[in-house]
Design brief:
Elements: E1 23-29, H1 36-46, H2 52-60, H3 71-85, H4 91-107, E2 110-117, H5 123-126, H6 129-147, E3 150-158, H7 163-175, E4 181-187, H8 199-207, E5 211-216, H9 222-232, E6 236-239, H10 247-256, E7 259-261, H11 264-269, H12 281-286, H13 298-301, H14 305-316, H15 320-332, H16 338-353
Parallel strand pairs: 1-2, 2-3, 3-4, 4-5, 5-6, 6-7
Bound molecules: zinc ion (ZN).
């Protein structure tokens, strides 16, 4: 209805577009970054019969119902992930995955991506560990050229494997530090074994100048985050959300400015929390713990980076000023060069101050 003065109807309150908010993405796994349509196409090309739960998730965009908080649920999740990974067979598949991941990042306003990969998983089909890593790094270079996004790689060891394997990977990661590897991670079931079993691998990585960024405080509680800090000298924590259960640990993370790579949609899909509003985003944010929201495995969880900021807005009442601060924290927690950081941070200011 027109107003009585005969002018225009009142404008609805402007909602800033979160896919235009410049940000950095620090928690994205390699296979998990694939577009669903690409996986379906590759499965068809190679005659791979994907598990029904996976095809259902890919076609509906709804995450498979998994309770990864129990071991059987986690095992099922890993089986789905393995099925997806088995469709990446040729260097062209790797190049396509990385290019498309970069395109999706650009679409979501990400100006810097750190993708994590365990090259061991791809080595048998790509001629060994070193060729696999080189193909991945070449693909990252090409995607950077094609899309303009800054992109680096974290090599992640698998916690379910022997710590000696992790040391081999750490040495390899250090060797390729000048080719775009910036950090060393540790993924898979954090309830298995101890973080300190991997302390030598992390020491090798740190001595080689790499960032320490293990997963912790997702499937296990605050003690697991403390282990990452004490035994692996973590600079960042993959997830770390369960630190919210321990106020002293929150203070420690805030004092040391250890960024937690929090992945709300993943947490809900895997049953770490029942609902998006249960993810303790506010607790962490208000304790002063730097956060970098991440999508983890959008292939399986059905949502990418900007959607994580939507969760903060829609389920936790983050204002645009607070969302801008979350974006700044993601940039500050990244390994981006200072000029890239400065550019992204000024883009955040522009997003916030742009007139309606
Ligand atoms: Zn992860």
């Amino acid at each position: 209805m027109l107003s009585s003065s005969g002018g225009h109807p009142p404008n609805p309150p402007r909602v800033r577009d979160l896919s235009e908010l410049p940000k950095a993405h620090l928690h994205l796994h390699f296979t998990g970054s694939m577009r669903p349509a690409t996986l379906l196409e590759l499965a068809d090309k190679y005659g791979v019969r994907l598990p029904e739960a996976l095809t259902d998730a890919l076609t509906s965009g709804e995450p498979p119902r998994l309770r990864a908080t129990d071991e059987r649920g986690w095992f099922r999740f890993q089986r789905l992930y393995d099925a997806a990974r088995s469709c990446l067979r040729e260097p062209d598949d790797i190049r396509r995955l990385v290019r498309e991941a970069a395109e999706e990042e650009v679409r979501d306003g990400s100006g810097w991506l750190e993708i994590q990969v365990d090259p061991t998983s791809y080595a048998p089909r790509l001629g060994g560990l070193i060729p696999a890593l080189e193909i991945i790094l070449d693909a990252v270079d090409a995607a950077t050229r094609d899309t303009g996004i800054g992109m680096r790689v974290l090599v992640a060891a698998n916690r379910m494997k022997h710590p000696l394997d992790a040391r081999t990977l750490a040495r390899l990661a250090v060797r390729y530090a000048d080719r775009g590897i910036v950090g060393f991670g540790l993924s898979n079931d954090e309830r298995r074994g101890m973080a300190r079993d991997f302390d030598r691998a992390f020491a090798i990585a740190r001595e080689g100048g790499l960032l320490s960024a293990p997963h912790g405080g997702e499937l296990a509680g605050p003690a697991s985050v403390r282990d990452c800090l004490d035994d692996l000298e973590a600079d960042r924590i993959g997830h770390g959300v369960r630190a919210a259960e321990d106020p002293r640990l929150l203070r420690r993370l805030a004092d040391r400015q250890v960024t937690c790579e929090v992945c709300p949609a993943s947490n809900v899909a895997l049953g770490v929390y029942d609902k998006p509003e249960d993810v303790p985003l506010r607790t962490l944010f208000e304790a002063g713990v730097p956060l970098a929201l991440g999508a983890d495995d959008p292939l399986l969880f059905g949502s990418r980076l900007a959607a994580q900021y939507e969760i903060a807005r829609n389920h936790h009442g983050f204002t645009d000023t607070e969302l801008a601060e979350l974006a700044r924290q993601s940039v500050r927690g990244s390994t981006a060069p200072e000029d890239t950081k400065a550019k992204l941070l000024s883009g955040v200011d522009d997003w916030l101050t742009a007139p309606a």
